[in-house]
Amino acid sequence: MGSVSLKIGDGTARFKRATFCSSAVNLLMLFSVITTNLFALYAFTSSPKDHTNHSLHLAHHKNISLISEQVSLILREIDSSQKKLTQMEKELLGYESIDLSQPNIPTELKNFLQHHQLPLGKDSRTGITEMVASVGHSCERSLDLLAQYMKYKVNGPCPDDWSLGQRLILQGCEPLPRRRCFAKSIPKVGLLPYPNSLWKNVSEKIYSWSGIGCKNLACLNSKKLNRDCSGCFDLVNGYEKERFVKVRGKNDFLIDDVLALGSGGTRTGFDIGGGSGTFAARMAERNVTIVTATLNVDAPFSDFIAARGLFPMYLSLNHRFPFYDSAFDLVHVANGLDIGGRPEILEFLMFDIDRILRAGGLFWLDNFLCTNDEKKKVLTRLIEQFGYKKLKWIVGERINGGGNSEVYLSAVLQKPVRV
Ligand SMILES: *[C@@H]1O[C@H](CO)[C@@H](O)[C@H](O)[C@H]1NC(C)=O
Ligand SMILES: *[C@@H]1O[C@H](CO)[C@@H](O)[C@H](O)[C@H]1NC(C)=O
Ligand SMILES: *[C@@H]1O[C@H](CO)[C@@H](O)[C@H](O)[C@H]1NC(C)=O
Ligand SMILES: *[C@@H]1O[C@H](CO)[C@@H](O)[C@H](O)[C@H]1NC(C)=O
């Protein structure tokens, strides 16, 4: 028992790197390591043959309880120093919420999260001295999955694990860390030129089916994937072809009517939870560019939209929209708005929608199912709080498959100019 070694993960390596940074924290860390080790050395090398009065005294009386008291004091000291070191290590890495000192963290995750000093020092315009990689703070809650996600061979092929990534996103780990591996790429044979691509079938072999229950389009089309997509992958025979251009009930608005309300100023739009991209396709035919937000929940939505020559955006609704204020002329949402949870959650989402919509732009709420009257009231109150002009507002009832009546809200609202 000559000395005590301090286990701080691979803190040694990081410590070396840290000396370059020459921060006060590093000096403190050095001091802490030295004092802790000296203290420990002293405690464990002290023995009766030492000539200090104190030790002789102890040896003489064989006062075991005093010795053990001292030892436990030292151990407490070591323990608290270790905690301090772990804290400093976290501060150095800059990720308070993700504990990178845990043993099972892949090096690649540490590499990604490591702060990078700007090569030319402080940027004069932004005042930034280092770059910080972004990753969702909730990734910490799914650290095992995240570790699994970041275990791959650098420069090699990525594991076929997009569904693992999506699981992380759905658990709030968004954005995901970047990876240095080649994502699986499926040959996209038979893609058609635009605008034929909008409605023509292509071989289903070009979609990614791994991690999805269905393995072909026929299977997808036999299912109600969500409220806004039942048979939405059937571009030939199904109802999909009629959406937005034919009405089924008073809650359905025609695209041309809505565009007329925008008096020609609708050039871009954002479709939230846009299924297989049919809204974007119909808008594209009218020279309006739509970005469709979608995840691949139970179906290859993103691949499918892309194959139609449209713009899928792989994003959960918990993520702040990656657009600057007033970016869009139109926002279209159907039951994607039904995000559940506390009322504040819907409020945060509505404020973000409001933010990316320009003044005079249109918010199209399309057949939103209000499962009960209370829900309708809450949503109505929330919408009214924004002071939009109600260009269309229809509350309709429909009998569902189970024979129960359901209340649907459809509306086209115009964002006011606020000063
Ligand atoms: C040891 O300490 C005691 C009490 O502090 C003192 O009286 C004594 O002289 C010391 N002996 C030696 C050898 O230093
Ligand atoms: C050992 O040390 C403790 C604390 O200083 C004291 O209370 C106790 O009487 C000592 N015992 C002996 C046997 O000297
Ligand atoms: C289009 O795809 C669907 C589903 O895979 C299939 O049933 C249908 O026969 C295809 N239509 C054409 C014209 O290829
Ligand atoms: C869309 O743009 C093209 C090319 O500018 C034009 O020929 C076509 O008439 C436009 N379509 C509509 C519906 O405005």
TrEMBL record:
Name of the protein described by the UniProt record: S-adenosyl-L-methionine-dependent methyltransferases superfamily protein
Cellular compartments annotated: Endomembrane system; Membrane
Signal peptide start and end residues: none
Membrane topology: Single-pass membrane protein; Single-pass type II membrane protein
Keyword vocabulary terms for this entry: Glycoprotein, Membrane, Methyltransferase, Signal-anchor, Transferase, Transmembrane, Transmembrane helix
GO MF term set: methyltransferase activity
GO BP field: methylation
Keyword DNA-binding: no
GO terms for cellular component: endomembrane system; membrane
Transmembrane regions listed in the UniProt entry: 24-44
Main localization, broad class: membrane
Pfam families xrefs: Methyltransf_29 (PF03141)
Coiled-coil parts of chain: none
Matches recorded under CDD domains: AdoMet_MTases
Biological source species: Heracleum sosnowskyi
SUPFAM superfamilies reported for this sequence: S-adenosyl-L-methionine-dependent methyltransferases (SSF53335)
